[in-house]
Design brief:
Chain A has about 270 residues and is an alpha/beta fold. Chain A has one domain: Aldolase class I (TIM Barrel). The first copy, chain A, is about 40% helix and about 15% strand. Chain A contains twelve helices and ten strands. In chain A, the strands form two sheets. The first copy, chain A, has an eight-stranded parallel barrel with strand order 1-2-3-4-5-8-9-10, surrounded by four helices. A two-stranded antiparallel ribbon of chain A has the order 6-7. Chains A and B meet through α3, α4, β3, α5 and α6 of A and α3, α4, β3, α5 and α6 of B.
């Protein structure tokens, strides 16, 4: 999917919500566990309940890989079930030497037809570049992540000049463009969004960390939005595990609707002139 | 596997060789492609031909994931086929927020019973810690990688003090110990091994980059070895793709034997008094 289509979808749905399919088998409602593929059945119901409210789905690959080849099948079936209009993100945080990253790119872009993959920057240019060689596919590069451990290395300043996350964002933009790269910027650092936006004015940011991790949608949007929205805000557990019983999908819809309505109002204020 | 057993195996076999099972389907000998699971059949023959010469096997997960659920099955079968005496490394370069890293740890340590997983440090402590909570299992943390892109961020100095790879190694040792963490140190930086060894005197280093990537076994060993060896030197393509025909396994054995003999001689010189 290209940037124009993504923005069109955001405008149509008045939403920049991404639903994270972190479908942890230990938290899936019990009545689904009897079915042949509980993870897929869970995802199917979550997708049916939220697809008009969100523009993207993001399965975190760990929750599938944990079940070996069977989990991989659940992932393939889930991806096939997501409507074509949605932007799909393989949250895999991959990154390896060139010939290996190329294989990961093939796995997610050709074998499975995801629109994007999250990639870790530690190994530098040749670990990222193979993912950039596919038309209308995207790298979503870790920049400033939402977790506590983001303080360990990402803020370390480089030669007294810039913190590591900034160096990553600046350098990566010399390899890519806003049509094939986004950055992961965690909502748990809302005070940083003005600066993050100035470092990459035209890029989309994938923003995890609202909901269970405590980030703030209003602040992130106020400072992070650009005139093509430029944000995909993710909620995983806050939506998919909003309910625990047989009516879990209704609870998921209610949680997604609340965020979508908040987003609609923010979009109206921000993009009124565009 | 614990450190004592690993060292015993090194002494018995006079080898610190790790064979990388980067079993790229496009390079597997043609006569195997007719079989039901060519990747597994290839690995099986490589393992039979090299198991007395190496102490570890390291499948790079990308080469399996590229084939979806079928690739995952090849990986599971391969792992089951590796003799118990060998140290097994899932070269996955994972790392995510805590609850997600925990799932990856379960996938590789419980679902599949690997001895170790390679982990990327970018997301900091809570992305690494879940992997450290399994008895006799190991994190192999990326420190100074063997690829060209290692120059992009890993050498950036931190507050004028230390480069990022050094900060990673020092900080990670406050979370772990030499019985549950190793570091990836690329053989393409042989001039750094004296310093790397001084930063982590007792830790094992997993050393990729000899063979196809051009690293130097002698130099790496001279400066990197400690009195419990402390090195696992990996060769992937240089061994597994040494031959292309029906006799590929014999060529793989010859390539592995050459390295093992070189290692035997180095070990004899270095560990004569231990």
């Amino acid at each position: 999917m290209n940037r124009t289509k993504l923005f069109q979808q955001i405008q149509q749905k008045k939403s920049y919500l991404c639903v994270g399919l972190d479908s942890d088998i230990t938290r899936i409602p019990k009545h689904l566990l009897e079915l042949d593929d509980p993870i897929f059945e869970f995802n199917k119901r979550i997708i049916d309940a939220t697809k008009d409210l969100c523009v993207a789905y993001k399965p975190n690959i760990a929750f599938y890989e944990a079940h070996g080849s069977k989990g991989w099948e659940s992932l393939e079936k889930t991806l096939a079930y997501i409507p074509e209009e949605h932007f799909t993100i393989a949250d895999a945080k991959r990154g390896d030497i060139g010939n290996t990253s190329r294989l990961y790119a093939k796995a997610f872009f050709e074998k499975m037809n995801f629109d994007s993959v999250t990639v870790a920057p530690y190994m530098g240019i040749d670990s990222v570049q193979p993912f950039l060689e596919f038309e209308n596919k995207w790298v979503i590069l870790l920049a400033l992540t939402s977790n506590k451990g983001s303080n360990d290395f990402q803020f370390a300043s480089q030669n007294g000049e810039e913190p590591l996350y900034e160096k990553v964002m600046r350098k990566a933009q010399t390899w890519s463009n806003p049509d094939n790269m986004m950055f992961v910027c965690g909502a748990t650092h809302p005070e940083k969004f003005k600066e993050l936006r100035s470092i990459a004015p035209d890029s989309f940011f994938l923003v995890p960390g609202i909901g269970a991790q405590g980030g703030d949608l209003q602040k992130v949007s106020e400072f992070g939005m650009n005139d093509h929205c430029g944000l995909l805000v993710n909620s995983s557990r806050g939506i998919i595990f909003a309910g625990e019983g047989e009516d879990f999908a209704e609870h998921a819809r209610a949680a997604a609707l609340k965020l979508q309505q908040e987003m609609a109002s923010i979009l109206e204020n921000h993009l009124v002139v565009s």
